[in-house]
Amino acid sequence: MPQFRILGSGAGTGVPSFFCSCPACQEARENPEYTRTRSGASVLTNNTMVLIDASPDLRSQLVKNNITKIDSVFLSHWHYDHFSGLGELEYYVKLDRIEKLPLYLPPSAVAQFESAFPNLLDIFNIIPWQFGQRYQFGEVCLTPLVANHSIETAGLLIESNEKRLAYFTDTSGLPEETEKFVSGADWLICDATFYGKNWYPHSHMSVEQAVELGRQVKAKETILTHLSMHYSQAVTTEALKSAVSRYPNVLVAHDGMVIEI
Q1: Span 3-260: which CATH code?
Q2: Cβ atoms of 259 and 165 closer than 8 Å
Q3: Any stretches that span the bilayer, and where are they (predicted)?
């Protein structure tokens, strides 16, 4: 059975942040179970491993989750907390895989990749993904769909023979056409960056807005991810779980969370 794994459930600052002493960071320092690395995920199907985004914490995520093989990388967008771990794959390709690793990028990010990582041009086979195109990996199909973010950004609809999972870590609601695609999904894993006031309403969502989006698209289960935990109001994981417990079929993501699809 295909397996979807959340490698990182945090927003750009991670939890704990080295510069922060808020209750969420203190909680994570005292109990590593509450640590949140930057957003990323993986899909394992038919012995094929697809990495979704490459966070600054990529090496530790792969080691922690016993991932020893990657067959493709799929980037949702070109923001630092989603692409900066690409360099961690250089020696995997040179010493173990040997051949180039397929890297699916937003079309608008190809030139930026070449500028930022000229030394990795012999590591990756660059493939600009296209919105609405279905990409088959083993028994799972990945379809990039338009998200509402500050730059060209995709969420992914991940479909197996029986289940549908929508993964949107960076988005402010969903465009109408995207909603149609994800309507009735078994899982909506989505941006819930802010607890309290949404500081960036054109790019991200608050916890309340994420819960409402799940209702709107009639997701069977909504899982909150890309959690800053610091802003605009600091909240511990235990307090957040308590706050969302009043909503049916809403869960708080955690690093290492596995969903069988």
Answers
A1: 3.60.15.10
A2: yes
A3: none
Q: CB pairs under 8 A, 24+ apart, for 239-243?
A: 239/23, 240/195, 240/207, 243/207
C-alpha distances in Å from residue 82, one per residue of 148, 226, 237: 16, 11, 23
C-beta separation of 206 from 195 below 8 A: yes
Q: H/E element holding 30?
A: helix 23-30
The whole-angstrom separation of Cα 38 and Cα 15 is 9
The whole-angstrom distance between residue 88's C-alpha and the CA centroid of its chain comes to: 18
Which amino acid does the sequence have at 118? P
Q: Which two tokens stand for residue 213?
A: 């989006």
- Summarised one tens digit per residue, pLDDT across range 86-142 is 999 999 999 999 999 999 999 999 999 999 999 999 999 999 999 999 999 999 999
Task: Return the HEC string of 159-208.
Answer: ECCCCEEEEECCCCCCCHHHHHHHCCCCEEEEECCEECCCCCCCCCCEHH
38 SS3 class: strand
- Chain-centroid distance of CA 233 in Å reads 22
